[in-house]
Amino acid sequence: MRTRAGARRHPHDDAPDTAEAFRRLAALPAGPQRDALRDAIVRAWLPMAERLAGRFRGRGESIEDLRQIAALGLVKAVDRYDPERGSAFESYAVPTITGEIKRHFRDHMGTMHVPRRVQELRNRVRFADQDLSRTLQGRRPTVAEIAEHTRLSEEDVRVGLEAMESFTALSLDAELSGSEDGHSLGDFLGSPDPALDTVVDREAVTPRLAALPERERAILYMRFFGDMTQSRIAEQLGISQMHVSRLISRCCDRVRDQVMREDDTEDGAGVPSPSGSGPTGGRRASPDR
């Protein structure tokens, strides 16, 4: 590092002097010459970025990935730094790089939000667990031992231990322990029942169907619940298939209009209820299939 006698030293002893390079960078137009100078500045400050990455070692991410994230933060700092503002590049780059690393942990490592106090407990418990594990022979420290080492209550230690699990989550595809058939957690999760989507429609239609004449109710039942063709219905009732088709269409239209009018009265919005495949749905009775 280049310093004068009595001048304030950089927090990083080997911080390069790139003030002139940044001034030239700001004056250069886009092109190969500017790109080469930008790359040279990034390489000059890369050791500092790697040291900042080392501060986050042991938190569930490899040091190689941390260095790449720090390098990305350094590139952002170089691109956004304005030498005309008068502040040293280092004072701008350090929070930019550390912020990039912390954002990575927040967005990609933690699987749930943890309050700041619990984060502090988690860190103290984690460091104590690591320190004690080096001195204990073949076992993990107990809650009481961690509490004594950290001067925390055992309850706070338990909170910290639980918070340590927020960095990892069990995959729904992971095989459950003790499962002889290779079942995963996802095999035991329920799924939405498609029939729930028709509950409101069914409840709205039921009293309208009950008010229809007996023959029309019978025709709708045979068609939509008995899955009978119009020809079979006509044969059973002794009428023509065309007459069955007209009756089905007329009944469906009548029930649908009654339900729609009730919806308009209740909410005033005139928004039709979802159409289904039953008597009040958007499907008209088709000719015999």
UniProtKB/TrEMBL annotation:
User: What is the scientific name of the source organism?
Assistant: Streptomyces thermoalcalitolerans
Q: Where is this region: Disordered?
A: 259-289
Identify the keywords attached in UniProt to this record, alphabetized.
Answer: DNA-binding, Sigma factor, Transcription, Transcription regulation
Q: Where is the composition biased (Low complexity)?
A: 268-277
Top-level taxon in the UniProt lineage: Bacteria
> By its UniProt entry, which SUPFAM superfamilies does this protein fall under?
Sigma2 domain of RNA polymerase sigma factors (SSF88946), Sigma3 and sigma4 domains of RNA polymerase sigma factors (SSF88659)
Domain RNA polymerase sigma-70 region, first and last residues per copy: 41-108, 120-189, 209-256
Q: What is this protein called?
A: RNA polymerase sigma factor SigF
